[in-house]
Every structure is written in structure tokens, then in C-alpha cells.
Fold:
Amino acid sequence: MPEKRSKASPMVKIATWNINSVRLRAQQVGRFLIEQEPDVLCLQEIKTVAELFPYDAFNALGYTHHAVHGQKGYHGVATISRIPLREVSRHDWQDNGEARHVGVELLGPGNGMILENVYIPAGGDIPDREANAKFGQKLDFLERMTRWAEKVERPTLIVGDFNIAPLECDVYDHKALLKVVSHTPLEVETLTRFADAHGWVDLGRKHIPAPERNWTWWSYRTYWQEKDRGRRLDHMWASPELAAQSTSHRIVEETRRWEQPSDHVPLITEFAL
DNA sequence: ATGGTGGGTAGCCCA
Structure:
């Protein structure tokens, strides 16, 4: 006879989406919140300062709790929630002042969960830190993240645009992309060291095992080609004890077919906590 | 095959 739980375990639904300008696509975010009903949504590339963040559009839908780390014109991250939260950190893992991380603690259902919202640098076009400073900055960002991950002690979920597709099946053509920033062996090794530093569980591949298609990003530059050539750049990784509580995970690819879409699509994970 | 598109911003940067 199955053991009966003394308390119902709360279901918490967490989403992440690189929105590529939250002001331009505030209506799309609203539609996503209405249709998918996540408890928390982590946005990357909001491309605005906090003062111009479209709070009202999300407040009206019940997402009245916010942690916004904005920047004028570029980058920027925001976590919006219908669960109370407390902002706990803003790491500058590139050490250059760019707004690429905000960390929160959930205070209602999921009480105590730490949720890290991160936008790892894209890294420029040339995969060589001598020829391209941005590539070196991307690797340095990952190394600092790794030093941080070694000290993580609480149940933590880290989500966002990692700008790396680690597995061969995470891109439309592994061999063709070996020298393309986002899929080079050096980036994959560096990300693997980050994973090993805390034992992060890749929820995308826990729930959608390789080699099943799992893409989250398609270049705007190839839309005209009508070819379906994507990469898995967006991720949700959990510390082991939290990963054991994830019950479902999916990619909401349909937002690509909305008018004027982001080049990224959202991911959603549900937890029984 | 050595381009292409998109967003924010202000005379290009970033993706």
C-alpha cells in the first residue's frame, strides 16, 4: 500500500525565456503567462533599464513580484513571479558591469528554493581568445561561475541563455558547428567543468533524453532559408536534490510562430516540492 | 559559402 503523504507537495512551475527586448514583446510575455501559467518566469535580454520595465503588464496578470537587473540597450535579466520572492544576488561573472545575472529566493510555495537567472555572453564570432576578446570573456565568465558553483550549498535551480549547445545532438549539424562559437570543444569542456563543480543535473536531457530534438534557438539570419536549423542554447539545471523533484519539462516551440518572435523559445519545468 | 536578420540606439554595437 502506497505511503500517504502527510502534506500535499506543492507544484511549482518555473519558466525561462530569452525575450530579446521585453518592451517590444511585453504582449507576447503576457500571452505566454496566460496560456502556460508558470509561477515564475526568468527573462534574459530584456534590453532595458529597470525604470522602463513593463511592470504594469505583468502585475495585471498576477505577477506582482519582480527582481529586475536592467541595463540600457543591451543584455539585462528579470525574474517575475506570482510567488513572493526576495532578490539575493547580482553576480558580475564577467567583471565588466554588464547585467547578466539575478538570483532570488522563493518565499511562498517552493519556500527556500534559490533561482539563478543567467545570461552567459554569446562570445563573438571567432573562437579564439587572442583574436576575439569576447570569446575570452565568455570563458572567463564560465570559470568565475564555476568557482561560485563549488560553494553552492542550498537547493538551487540555474536557468537561462547559456549560449552553449553542449551535446552533439544539441545542434542541427555537429561537424559543421565544431568551429562555430556556441558548440566548440573548448566551450563544451568549460561548461562541463561548471556542471561537475556542483553536480548540476541538465533537466532538458533528464526529461528529453538525447538524441531527441531539444532546440531552443534559431538564427534570425537563416529564416529566409526555410531550413529548420536550431541549437539548444537555453538550459535549466538543478542541484541533485532539487532535480529529483522535477516532474516535467518542455520547450514551448510554438512561440516561434507568433508574430515578430524572439529568436529563442521558452522552457518550462514543473517541480513537486 | 565567406552573406544573411533583428533590436536598441544614435551615428554602430550586440546577438
Summary: The longest strand of chain A covers residues 11-18. Residues 20-21, 23-24, 45, 47-48, 72-75, 122, 124, 134, 163, 219-225, 260, 263 of chain A lie near DNA strand B (CB under 10 Å from a C1').
